[in-house]
Amino acid sequence: MDKNIPISIFWFRRDLRLNDNAGFYHALKSSNAVLPFFIFDKNILEKLEDANDARLTFIHNALVDIDRQLQKYKSSLLAVYDKPLDAWVKLLKQYKIKAVYTNQDYEPYAKERDEAVKNLLTDHHIEFKTFKDQVIFDTNEVVKDDGKPYTVYTPYKNKWYQKLKPFYLKSYQTEKYLVNLLKFKAPAIPALKEIGFEKSDLQLPDINYQRVIDNYSNTRNYPAVKGTSHVGVHLRFGTVSIRQCAADANKAPDKTWLNELIWREFYSMILYHFPHTANHAFRPEYDRIEWINDEVQFDAWCKGETGFPLVDAGMRELNATGFMHNRVRMITASFLSKDLLIDWRWGERYFARKLLDYEMASNVGGWQWAAGSGTDAAPYFRIFNPDSQLKRFDPKMEYVKKWVPEYADFSKYPKPIIDHKFARERCLKDFKKALNR
């Protein structure tokens, strides 16, 4: 191809699909041919601990699928393994770039990365255009009447519903404009081994939310039932459109699943407006808690060897599959932060390492909810009892029997690493002491 032909670039990140992609749509409608681009970000990948991290396999498969679709239009996906700023410096030398299009990301690192790239492009008189794509409402679209962000979910949800109009659920018809792709043949997408990873043998979930949304409120709390959508990893990497999910959920008589999507947006906006919450308590007084941080007990929690069957089942499911049922996520998080008095950030980092559907905003929000340090109005003395939760949500022990088969033989199953009654009283005492200090 002629390197002097002016082009636009669309930068894929958390939006790994061609259909109903906001930034991609606007790029294709621009006056220049569009080069699709993806960066395997060294800044992120070099921090991952596991060579067989299944998320990389998921991303790689999605990119191969995108490239296959692009080839139908005599185009292809240019994918590189590099630090973003270095990748863009090289790209500026290779192509005559008129504009760069991408979709907005709200995480602290992403905001810093995009600002640096924007500054680089501005120095070269290149427009950097970002679009809303991974949420229905972003930044300042759902705020209080005084313009300040909501910090409590229910009023945020109510305003979200008030603002919702069919326009916001309308898909972007990218298919009409794919003829505007740049005709070129990119080098092969870097193999997993080239970027330091191995193909994972984890079974990655298919999208199946249509099967559960009509009855979600009745099934979602029972881990032995196939009552959840497993859509999280697809939303995380954008292989499914949030507009399609929300439109389908909005048609359902049961709005419980749609409310969960709203929780996701609420936490995304909390992280955007309060980026310190990635590493610090939303309510600063909770940073005064003196955690015990017993490494032996933390290791038992990680392995699913605490002697509490529902906690252990959840951790083993996570370790084996990269997924954990949401009800069980709350129970395991409460157990770590309240029963064991281990810093919620330890658990958040472990989930970040293991969860296929890991999103910083939702994960941090969920962990702070469990620890009592987040936006939730409930006081710190909400402490889940693992045994009563087991009786209520896995009464036939189906989930526990699947993941903790030795529970049937008490001689093989470990004794509880702590007494829950003692742990609860200790937690209340230590939290109260810290918060009153």
TrEMBL record:
Photolyase/cryptochrome alpha/beta domain sequence ranges: 6-136
Pfam families recorded: DNA_photolyase, FAD_binding_7
Entry GO MF terms: deoxyribodipyrimidine photo-lyase activity
InterPro entries per record: Crypto/Photolyase_FAD-like_sf, Crypto/Photolyase_N_sf, Cryptochr/Photolyase_FAD-bd, Cryptochrome/DNA_photolyase_1, DNA_photolyase_1_CS_C, DNA_photolyase_N, Rossmann-like_a/b/a_fold
Gene3D superfamilies per UniProt: 1.25.40.80, DNA Cyclobutane Dipyrimidine Photolyase, subunit A, domain 3, HUPs
Cofactors required: (6R)-5,10-methylene-5,6,7,8-tetrahydrofolate; FAD
Record field: transmembrane: none
This enzyme's EC code(s): 4.1.99.3
Keywords, sorted A to Z: Chromophore, FAD, Flavoprotein, Lyase
Family: Belongs to the DNA photolyase family.
Protein name according to UniProt: Cryptochrome/photolyase family protein
